[in-house]
Amino acid sequence: MLSSQPELDACYSNMMRWISDEYHGLNGSQYEVLETPPSPLEFARLVQISRPVLIKGYKVPAQTLWSNNYLIECMGDQKISVAVTPDGRADAITAGQDGREYFTEPHVQQMTMAEFLLKISSDKKGDVLYVQTQNGNLYPSGYFDPSSRDGSSECEKLRRDAPSEISWCSEALGRSPEAVNVWVGDSRSMTSVHSDPFENIYTVVRGTKHFTLFPPTEAWCLKERSYPHATYTCDTPISPLKLSPTNYPPVRWSSIINPDDSTTLPSGAHPIHITLHAGDTLYLPVGWWHYVRQSGDITIALNWWYDLQMRGAQWVWLSFLRGMGKDVMSGNPAQMNNADTTEKG
Amino acid sequence: MLSSQPELDACYSNMMRWISDEYHGLNGSQYEVLETPPSPLEFARLVQISRPVLIKGYKVPAQTLWSNNYLIECMGDQKISVAVTPDGRADAITAGQDGREYFTEPHVQQMTMAEFLLKISSDKKGDVLYVQTQNGNLYPSGYFDPSSRDGSSECEKLRRDAPSEISWCSEALGRSPEAVNVWVGDSRSMTSVHSDPFENIYTVVRGTKHFTLFPPTEAWCLKERSYPHATYTCDTPISPLKLSPTNYPPVRWSSIINPDDSTTLPSGAHPIHITLHAGDTLYLPVGWWHYVRQSGDITIALNWWYDLQMRGAQWVWLSFLRGMGKDVMSGNPAQMNNADTTEKG
């Protein structure tokens, strides 16, 4: 055992800093821009490099078709799950009335597309609405799994306007997506900084998205901690939202609330800013940290999540960079993995 | 600063052990066998996984043409560089007369292919001969570099029998090889365990090669140390070889002399044994440790080295696994990198 936890922490920080400095020294903060979508082979090479790429010219029918009227007509009386928060910060760290910070999930309301678009367009001061269910609301995992009996989803009526897979990505990875999502919100919603265990293809259909990205090597800059879990609830349909602690397990999440505020980041952090306009597509590699804001009256995006490659070293590398091996260093494996902490996102 | 070096070492070992256990837990010791060469896209996916693959059916004319007589006739009076050692251990750790261990390079003799093949076939008890120059003796880097004026090499007369690149590999990686080598030796020669900063395609033309492989995550099991440098020399063409220390910088090399002797390995090591017969090809991914023996009267192999992908995280990951960040952990970056130690191989 090391003599003290501060020593272990210093030892660990020195090493993480060395790794992220080396990575940044080799790669800088550049990102590639492709004027047209890659071939499967070109994309396979980009996946091997695992750095973000801005891809122009990837066309989906949704980009030209998805006006409010079209969406309302197409979706009809189908209910969709809408995240409701007082401040646009769903799945984010928020202080409760007790002063403690919680990982807080949104209140979820069911409504039709017509109701949603009316509310989000007319009420720019009240609660913030965001379609962001992230469960494959366009094509869920069951859609891709031959053994599943349920491939249905809330937005399935929109499927004719967006393909279930992206051929150059599926061929490069040798697999189908795990889930395809539609995101609809306005400039008041944001996504707190986190990373996903997925290769991600992200296309903006309407409006503009602003990504702030950090490589997996800068996980240490984002200071993940364990937070108690809460959800926004409301007692009656017209009562105000309140932050309600739950009995769910704590959630491991970045404690950097606004990574665009550089004063909250260690000097070793090198954020990369990429703005996507309608028609732009981002390859967001597995394990990259992202903080996402949006601008425009209504912003709509689509994303295709592909499972990460579990063979090889990628999972181990990403886990290590997130500090999974840290407590093992002290020779006390029992401390490892924060067994009471749930992974989110 | 940590209070003591043993503490730092323990801390570091615990972490490396965690990483290599996680990696082995996910990947095991399996390797894929392909009955035919992959397409460029299939190979790109294999490169992303970065595990060894035995590839059958990759044909080069050399496999059918390279008899002794053919090689002698084709090479004519062209001299080739032949590594000469007393024991078949070129570029290996060997004890000198002073009892110290040295990283010892072979004596190099120039001779014709006829002289070489006669010696190696007739004298199975004297010094061991091995064509193993590893400098692109078939196609050197200058051959692939448009700005170079010299693409010549010792074995260039054999080029018509082996292509300068492997289409499925060059297309998958998006680059040409860095060097292509011919290896000719007998069962008395071996290659000590080491790793290379190259993606490697290795084809056996005659005889049999026995590879013992370790993933980059098991670098710690191979215990690299800094060794003084030596070379075999002989005072006159007929005097016996002697191990002569040089003034070259020390060399960082594995201290495991025979990784096939499991008693010399830590319990965390998981060697993978792959035997290649004539006509078999190995994809040996960048950073994988390999110990190579051969059997058969004369064993001939070809290998294509492709530079590793310097963009992305691979170089940092491999350096880290080899312990490059270790001394940084203690907060003393000046100790880092063993500045007086040369990388070999």
Automatic annotation (TrEMBL), chains A, B:
InterPro entries in UniProt: Cupin_8, JmjC_dom, RmlC-like_jellyroll
Looking up Pfam families in the UniProt record yields: Cupin_8
Q: Which SMART domains does this UniProt record tie to the protein? A: JmjC
Per the database record, which ranges form the JmjC domain? 151-321
PANTHER family named among the record's database cross-references: BIFUNCTIONAL PEPTIDASE AND (3S)-LYSYL HYDROXYLASE JMJD7, HYPOXIA-INDUCIBLE FACTOR 1 ALPHA INHIBITOR-RELATED
Q: What is this protein called?
A: Clavaminate synthase-like protein
Origin organism of this chain? Answer: Neolentinus lepideus HHB14362 ss-1
High-level lineage: Eukaryota, Fungi, Dikarya, Basidiomycota, Agaricomycotina
